Amino acid sequence: MEILKIATDWAKAEVFSTQFFILFGFIFVLSSVGFWQLGKTDIAKAYITPTLVAGILLLIIGFGLFFTNKSRVKEFEIAYTNDASAFVESELKRVESTLNEYQTIVFKIIPFIITVAALLIIFLDTPTWRAISITTIAMLVIILLIDGTAHSRIEAYNKQLLVIEKKDR
Q: What is the DSSP-derived secondary structure letter of residue 126?
């Protein structure tokens, strides 16, 4: 029963964390509206579309993860009740897969994209490309901040799963 509480607590923490994607998504959308209504310069007008796109992407990520993790809380109890050892095994596989994705996407690809966007700011002198690059960097930094904490939570969850798996053997 301990593993069910650990899994549920992890999923609830993920639900809370994904709400920040939603919050920042709304901030980006509101920023886009602000640039649209108040932007008088070329650079301000150039931010309208990139901030809107970034906001929509963050909202999609946030709502997708929110509903996935919210339903996972309910599924945990059912899976644990049916077969506790199979539940631990399936969670270990899922967590290991997620950790591998973090290593590739969050800690390699996202920093690479940030670097490319920073270089675009330097080498492309048009307002549109600068706005796209700066907005991309801002969005990806937010993703890194949120996913960085999620990564440490899932690592801790993985360690707890491994301890419980060893106890069951």
A: S
| CA distance linking residue 28 with residue 164, whole number of Å | 42
Torsional class of 39: left (φ above 0), alpha (ψ -120 to 50), beta (otherwise):
beta
Cα(125)–Cα(131) distance, rounded to whole angstroms?
10
Distance CA 106, CA 100 (A): 10
pLDDT tens-digit profile, the chain (169 residues): 688 889 999 999 999 999 999 999 999 999 999 999 999 999 999 999 999 999 999 999 999 999 998 888 888 888 888 888 888 889 999 999 999 999 999 999 999 999 999 999 999 989 999 999 999 999 999 999 999 999 999 999 999 989 888 876 6
Which of 7, 31, 149 minimizes the C-alpha distance to 81? 7
Comparing C-alpha atoms, which of 153, 155, 164 is closest to residue 12?
A: 153
Domain extent for 146: 2-168
From the list 99, 79, 98, the residue with the least C-alpha distance to 89 is: 79
**Domain count of the fold of the chain:** 1
